[in-house]
């Protein structure tokens, strides 16, 4: 009686957790080990799901209708202007510290010297931040206008925006200043475009050599 009750209880637990339903009363696990699972995919031992359903073949982000997958010049303008301002402020602060220490090297360490060095740091930081921020603002504005006008985004827009930025920034120096600014902007943006497309150009040259 007691053994029968124990067997019925164990079979009840086995049926509850699926062991009895899978193996069956007349078959052992060794008998079912070689039976092929026709029409069934192997499941992960850790997740009771088909691993193929975990593979993402599409992008994880949902874009609005007609939106581009890459950020345009208008979206990049905020990052460009802010980054140039921060870079200019950091460079100007270091340059101001160097100039301040150089100009006050004959003074003893005192409060007047500290104030003079601090004034030089803040002055140079604001100057360089304003300069680079203005250049970034002009470059971004020209880039957005050229992109909207041409209806395309390529390296030609970058070089044209850089050239026009240099010309406008140096417009107060006359025709010679305009020419110098345009050439400087064209050279800088040309080098940037060359660096940006270097991998593509090298791959094209390797394919042509083969």
From TrEMBL:
Gene Ontology biological process terms from the UniProt entry: protein import into mitochondrial matrix
Single annotated GO MF: protein transmembrane transporter activity
Keyword annotations of the record: Membrane, Mitochondrion, Mitochondrion inner membrane, Protein transport, Translocation, Transmembrane, Transmembrane helix, Transport
Listed GO CC annotations: TIM23 mitochondrial import inner membrane translocase complex
Chief site of localization: mitochondrion
Membrane topology category: Multi-pass membrane protein
Compartment annotation: Mitochondrion inner membrane
Regions that span the bilayer: 76-97, 127-146, 177-195
Pfam families: Tim17 (PF02466)
Keyword flag Cell inner membrane: no
InterPro entries: Tim23, Tim23-like
Function recorded in the entry: Essential component of the TIM23 complex, a complex that mediates the translocation of transit peptide-containing proteins across the mitochondrial inner membrane.
Similarity remark: Belongs to the Tim17/Tim22/Tim23 family.
Subunit structure, interactors included: Component of the TIM23 complex, at least composed of TIM23, TIM17, TIM50 and TIM21.
PANTHER family per the UniProt record, alphabetical: MITOCHONDRIAL IMPORT INNER MEMBRANE TRANSLOCASE SUBUNIT TIM23 (PTHR15371:SF39), TIM23 (PTHR15371)
The protein's name in its UniProt record: Mitochondrial import inner membrane translocase subunit TIM23
Source species of the chain: Crotalus adamanteus (Eastern diamondback rattlesnake)
